[in-house]
């Protein structure tokens, strides 16, 4: 049982028992959930008026268009490998005759759109194409015949709230560039001639429902592609070295495996040159040590021996092989020098390209817009818009005043253009590091350089306000990155042999990593956090060598938070001026789901993470919980759960754990819950809201049936293509030094939803490239936030 707040009847609850023990089954009939209506969004309570008025530009273009569209249902028999190829051929054969000269737009599935009706309501067509499946299987080239039936399905009218209309117009806009560009997701790229890695620049487009009507959002995209070339040449580019017969070290093998995962290759020594294999990874051994799975004789030949006898080809003996798979064999080993990239393909490897200045980025967008109005499909559907960015009336919110320790010379500080440093300041609450050690995995960092770095870091921690003991438990240890787990466990035991008799734990492990470390960082974090229960701080070798004071300060701030300290607090929180938070005990949540990379195993789960504030009214300390869940499941499954133990149900889940932890650490019962949730796909928005709101309410009711705090749920969207640009680059007071908009810029007009409660916020300064504002969309609000209150609170929280 936790200590109760004296003001237990404050807003958000009606009092009652709050405990952490077993409870009876929680009823699903929670009154607040009866108000939830799927498909209905929370209406905007008003517009922001705080801060100073500020004119910016956004990469949105207002559209004019034909308000009537015809949608046809398409049925292709038999099912083709590429439905788009069938419809392109159909348009070539019958476009000027039976289709009446119309230019249709096809969505690649079952819908076809036209600006005017066809001369028929239902008609069948015959289309013949080369048989691609025969080609892929190595069979003689033949022809395949298709029957395409097109039937009038519906006439659409361009109403602002019509989801069908948006789907139709996104299909039409995609049709404008399909023949000339390569489509990846929602972005178009022009392929470039030549071999090797090419950084292709393209553009993203999507129509959106905004306060100014239907607008077209256009942005620049850059993706790396591989044009067809031998795999061995590509690997040389990735590693930036000549591939002779030298073995790959651990980091090189991890990097190549990650970058080439899922890339399709051709085996050049095979008669069927069109057969494709998909790369799944890299072998840990060289080809001279690797038993060949292709050898059916059972003699145990190595890959080198097999290729020399079968193909009379001498291959590199110490270079690892590609792990590949096809429809016939789950795993095959192929040497790199006998494989070629089959087609131009996007990969995960990122080329280092210079970030565009905002002014140049804006010009590139305008150049992309020019061809739209002249495109035949655009004319067919009456699509036109002005060739200029939308002028938006925004505001600049004032930054919060930060409170530091009274022992420092500077006790309070107002950040300027979103930045501040620790000069003449000390942490509000310095943490303690009494026992620590350092392990160096970077071979290019000498023992003396690593020791000097640790000494400087310890001094910086003390200067910043921490209690940091200067000597490690044991002298610094050098290690190789290919045996991380046994090495860490071995040396952890060495540390504990010294500390255990003293009844102490290891407070901090400093780890020095090579600059190119592949998955080493993730491995170390996983082992330290889950296996050993250690607080770790990783540092890259390039920063260790330079030992810049700014870097040392940043590392000291991270260490302080990890060991339970507090770097700074908001002055408004201390004096009671934080909107909706200072007057009532409030817990703030942040939640997200991370999904496995497409190259990871099919058994890899998605990971749900939920953090929550553990102090009030400061709201600066957060605790985190993670749970695995079904692969690619967007709904967080572990927010609330009930387990049948035979004698009754025991409830649990991440929400309940955080609530109990908050009560124990603050002595208050939270009467407000503010839940920031990473965005989900639009189609599942209502489902996620309904499930997770229900989970929050049930978790509260499991503590006490009448415990009912007020809940606000806010979706946080970072992966979007809306960009904000300065209204006038010539006025220095209206732009940041990088050319970006000022930190604190907020927009809730013109480009935002006509009725929903949403806004864009650039809380910090963008130093490189173009600032990407975060879109906040309020889905549920029992705390009755005004636009000013929520936007100021959100901006302030970005500084904690």
From TrEMBL:
Transmembrane segments: none annotated. Residues 1-11 have a biased composition (Basic residues). Residues 230-343 form the PAZ domain. PROSITE patterns: PAZ, PIWI, PROKAR_LIPOPROTEIN. GO terms for biological process: regulatory ncRNA-mediated gene silencing. Keywords: RNA-mediated gene silencing. This is Uncharacterized protein. The lineage of its organism: Eukaryota, Viridiplantae, Streptophyta, Embryophyta, Tracheophyta.
């Amino acid at each position: 049982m936790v200590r109760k707040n004296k003001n237990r009847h404050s807003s958000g609850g009606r009092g009652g028992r709050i405990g952490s023990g077993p409870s009876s089954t929680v009823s699903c009939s929670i009154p607040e959930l009866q108000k939830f209506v799927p498909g209905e969004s929370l209406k905007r309570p008003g517009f922001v008026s705080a801060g100073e008025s500020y004119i910016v530009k956004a990469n949105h273009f207002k559209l004019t268009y034909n308000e009537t569209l015809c949608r046809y249902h398409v049925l292709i028999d038999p099912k083709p490998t590429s439905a788009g190829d069938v419809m392109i051929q159909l348009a070539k054969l019958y476009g000027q005759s039976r289709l009446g000269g119309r230019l249709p737009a096809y969505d690649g599935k079952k819908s076809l759109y036209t600006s005017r009706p066809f001369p028929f309501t239902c008609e069948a067509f015959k289309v013949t194409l080369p048989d691609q499946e025969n080609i892929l299987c190595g069979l003689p080239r033949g022809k395949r015949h298709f029957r395409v039936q097109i039937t009038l399905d519906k006439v659409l009218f361009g109403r602002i709230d019509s989801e069908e209309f948006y789907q139709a117009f996104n299909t039409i806009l995609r049709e404008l560039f399909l023949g000339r560009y390569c489509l990846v997701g929602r972005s178009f790229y022009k392929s470039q001639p030549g071999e090797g890695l090419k950084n292709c620049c393209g553009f993203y487009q999507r129509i959106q429902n905004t306060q100014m009507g239907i607008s077209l959002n256009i942005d620049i995209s850059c993706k790396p592609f591989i044009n067809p070339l031998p795999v061995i040449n590509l690997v040389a580019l990735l590693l930036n070295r000549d591939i002779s017969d030298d073995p790959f070290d651990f980091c090189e093998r991890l990097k190549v495996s990650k970058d080439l995962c899922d890339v399709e290759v051709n085996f050049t020594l095979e008669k069927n040159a069109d057969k494709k294999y998909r790369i799944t990874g890299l072998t840990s051994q060289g080809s001279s040590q690797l038993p060949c799975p292709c050898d059916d004789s059972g003699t145990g030949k190595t890959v080198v021996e097999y290729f020399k006898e079968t193909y009379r080809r001498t291959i590199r003996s110490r270079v690892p092989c590609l792990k590949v798979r096809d429809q016939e064999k789950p795993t095959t080993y192929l040497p790199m020098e006998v494989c070629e990239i089959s087609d131009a393909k996007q990969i995960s490897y990122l080329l280092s390209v210079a970030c565009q200045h905002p002014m140049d980025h804006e010009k590139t967008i305008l150049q992309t817009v020019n061809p739209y109005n002249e495109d035949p499909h655009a004319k067919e559907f009456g699509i036109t818009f002005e060739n200029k960015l939308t002028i938006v009336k925004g505001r600049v919110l004032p930054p919060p005043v930060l409170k530091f320790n009274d022992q420092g010379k500077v006790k309070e500080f107002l950040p300027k253009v979103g930045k501040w440093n620790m000069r003449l300041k000390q942490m509000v609450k310095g943490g303690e590091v009494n026992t620590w050690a350092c392990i160096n995995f970077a071979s290019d960092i000498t023992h003396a350089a690593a020791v000097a770095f640790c000494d400087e870091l310890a001094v910086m921690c003390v200067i910043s306000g921490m209690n940091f003991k200067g000597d490690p438990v044991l002298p610094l240890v050098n290690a190789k990155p290919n045996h991380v787990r046994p090495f860490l466990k071995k040396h952890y035991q060495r540390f504990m042999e010294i500390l255990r008799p003293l009844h102490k734990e290891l407070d901090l492990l400093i780890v020095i990593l090579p600059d190119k470390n592949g998955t080493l960082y993730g491995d170390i974090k996983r082992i330290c956090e889950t296996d050993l229960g250690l607080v770790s701080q990783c540092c890259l070798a390039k920063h260790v060598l330079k030992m810049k004071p700014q870097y040392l300060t940043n590392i000291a701030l991270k260490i302080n938070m990890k060991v339970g300290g507090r770097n700074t607090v908001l002055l408004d929180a201390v004096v009671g001026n934080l909107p909706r938070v200072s007057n009532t005990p409030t817990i703030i949540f942040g939640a997200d789901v991370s999904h496995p990379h497409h190259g990871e195993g099919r058994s890899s789960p998605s990971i749900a993470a939920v953090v929550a504030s553990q102090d009030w009214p400061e709201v600066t300390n957060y605790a985190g919980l993670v749970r695995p869940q079904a692969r690619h499941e967007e709904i967080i499954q572990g927010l609330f759960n009930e387990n049948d133990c035979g004698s009754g149900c025991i409830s649990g889940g991440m929400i309940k754990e955080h609530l109990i932890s908050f009560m124990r650490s603050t002595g208050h019962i939270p009467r407000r819950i503010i839940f920031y949730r990473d965005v989900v796909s639009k189609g599942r928005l209502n489902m996620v809201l309904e499930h997770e709101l229900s989970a929050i309410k049930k978790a509260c009711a499991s503590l006490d049936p009448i415990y009912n705090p007020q809940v606000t749920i806010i979706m946080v969207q970072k992966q979007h293509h809306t960009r904000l640009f300065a209204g006038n680059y010539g006025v220095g007071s209206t732009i940041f030094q990088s050319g970006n908009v000022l930190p604190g810029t907020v927009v809730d007009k013109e480009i935002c939803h006509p009725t929903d409660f949403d806004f864009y916020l650039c809380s910090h300064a963008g130093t490189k490239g173009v600032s990407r504002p975060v879109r906040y969309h309020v889905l549920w609000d029992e705390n009755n936030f005004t636009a000013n209150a929520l936007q100021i609170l959100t901006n302030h929280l970005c500084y904690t």
